[in-house]
Amino acid sequence: MVGRMPTFIGILSRKSVEQFKPDPYLATIVNCMLWVFYGLPFVHPDTILVATINGVGLAIELIYTIIFFIYAEKKGRMKAAAWIAIEVVFMAIVVALTMTMFHSTTKRSNVVGVLCVIFGLIMYISPLTIMGKVITTQSIKYMPFYLSLATFANGVVWTIYALMPVDPYIIIPNGLGAISGAVQLILYAYYSRFTPKHHDDGGDDDEMKPNSADLQMVAAPSV
Length: 223
Prior knowledge:
Layout: H1 5-14, H2 23-39, H3 48-71, H4 74-101, H5 105-125, H6 128-137, H7 145-161, H8 168-191, H9 212-216
Helix pairs in contact: 1-3, 2-3, 2-4, 2-5, 5-8, 6-8, 7-8
């Protein structure tokens, strides 16, 4: 999440969101909310670290979203506001149903865990788009190295954490996340040979740069 900061520093300096789309951040918000709920003692005991880290992640994503609201056009603000409202309602329904229909932490953690896996997989699968673009263009300019490294490291660390004791709901999305990050790093290493560090033809570098929405698709969820 911190790896996304350069995008928002650019927005602040330009005072415009330009081509930026908030979709990945809005998706991360609901993902973090689910993991925070999953990590609470009355849902899944002894996983308070999951709730704490994703609580921080949620705060960061909300800050990003606020920045978007400040500099986006009216249409963009309305779209983001609508999605946030939907996510809040969705979470309220999940919390209400989980707490009223299931009366043991085992059942609660199973239900919320499945939802976390589904949303986690969606977020980890999303980089397939950018990886395809790297292969097609044979250019790593479409895949920031540090975000790929963060995806890999995040997946590995949380997979190891989930082994003590075994928690399949954390292992499944983060294990795939580690694989996704590893593939991104392999692609980066391979196609870096074909991507010149400097353009000598005097062309417009903007033609080689991905838009901000593409960059965000490489980002990984907190857990």
